[in-house]
Amino acid sequence: MNKPQEWHDERRQGIGGSDVAAALGVSPWKSQLELWGEKTGLVPDDFDGNEFTYWGEALEQILMDRFNADHKNLVMGGQKSRPHKDHPCLRANVDGIIYEHDGDALGIWEAKTASTEFTEVPVHYQLQVQHYMYVYDLPFAIVSVLFHGNLYKEFRIERDPKYAVILVPQLLNFWQKVVDKLPVFKPTSMKDLGIKYVTDTEGEVCKIDETTWYAMTVQKIQRATLNSKNHKATAEKLKVDLAQSMKQQGHKSLKLNGKAVATIVTVKDSKAFDMVKFKKSEPKLHEAYLSKQRKGYTSLRVSK
């Protein structure tokens, strides 16, 4: 499932259909800051796919065959990456183009797989095909979906003129922030915070008392953490707000009554030896370098 470096380089050239939801801040998988970090190259785009993307790509041809079987009056053609004629930073790498038999392009074709059935195409997929229709200047898209491996459905989506008027300017604005390397987007997670302040690891210790917003926010985080099952999202949001305020004020740590109650800790990426991969590719060498086996033991772990 590893993607070649050329694939990653191509993705950094602009905003593709699968980037649109993240660029607009409505993606369920990726934030604006994560996408900004990948496009600027300040954060490595190390996603090489997973089981979902693997099977999505593997089943694409099967879905195309089904579409062709159901629409014998049409012709399907594949296309490579293509930029918009006026805005080259807006790019499209579609699964297919639907043609008439006489060769005229009619619409976009997109293949999807899903484990949960839906009756309306999710917003992030709608934005993806609206982007493709805008780049290719085509009036509609067909999304072919294979649900839980055995149910095939098609969804037709008409081109919405509001995409060009309202959303394209927002995408161009996002791309300008990439070009200028300006992380102006609001962090939504601690990961986002690390991206926004990727080059800022300095800070001072700030002494606070119980009446400050800092102290009250720390107390709220502590209470939410104690009831983490129901308030995990609340604790995360409070942490992000507190850490961002600390960063903006140049504080790395907060001390209350001489005790550090909040400290921003930044751990940089590091490499580790992949023993599982090594054993699979070099089993004899792995065996030759095995040392004494760890002795087994029995223990009782009691949760706090």
In short:
With 304 residues, the protein is α+β, with helices and mostly antiparallel strands. The chain has helices spanning 5-11, 20-23, 32-40, 51-58, 60-70, 123-136, 162-179, 190-196, 213-226, 228-248, 275-281, 283-288; strands at residues 74-77, 82-83, 91-92, 96-100, 105-114, 140-147, 151-158, 204-208, 251-256, 259-263.
Word description of this protein:
This protein is α+β, with helices and mostly antiparallel strands and 304 residues long. The chain folds into two domains: 5-179, Lambda Exonuclease, Chain A (Alpha-Beta Complex), CATH 3.90.320; 190-263. Helix content is 41%, strand content 18%. It is built from twelve helices and ten strands. The chain has helices spanning 5-11, 20-23, 32-40, 51-58, 60-70, 123-136, 162-179, 190-196, 213-226, 228-248, 275-281, 283-288; strands at 74-77, 82-83, 91-92, 96-100, 105-114, 140-147, 151-158, 204-208, 251-256, 259-263. The strands form three sheets. A five-stranded mixed beta sheet has the order 1-4-5-6-7, sandwiched between helices. A hairpin with a 3-residue loop joins β6 and β7. The longest helix has 21 residues, at 228-248. The protein is globular, with a radius of gyration of 25 Å. 23% of the residues are buried. The model has no long low-confidence stretch (mean pLDDT 87).
Kindly provide the radius of gyration, computed on alpha-carbon positions and rounded to a whole number of angstroms: 25 Å
Count of β-strands: 10
**In what range is the share of β-strand residues?**
15-25%
Which word captures the global form?
globular
N-C termini distance: 40 Å
CATH class annotation of the largest domain: Alpha Beta
Q: How would you sum up the major sheet?
A: 5 strands, mixed
Residues in helices, as a percent range: 40-55%
H and E string: HHHHHEEEEEHEEHHEHHEEHH
Give the overall pLDDT as a whole number. Answer: 87
Predict the CATH topology of the largest domain.
Answer: Lambda Exonuclease, Chain A
- The number of helices is 12
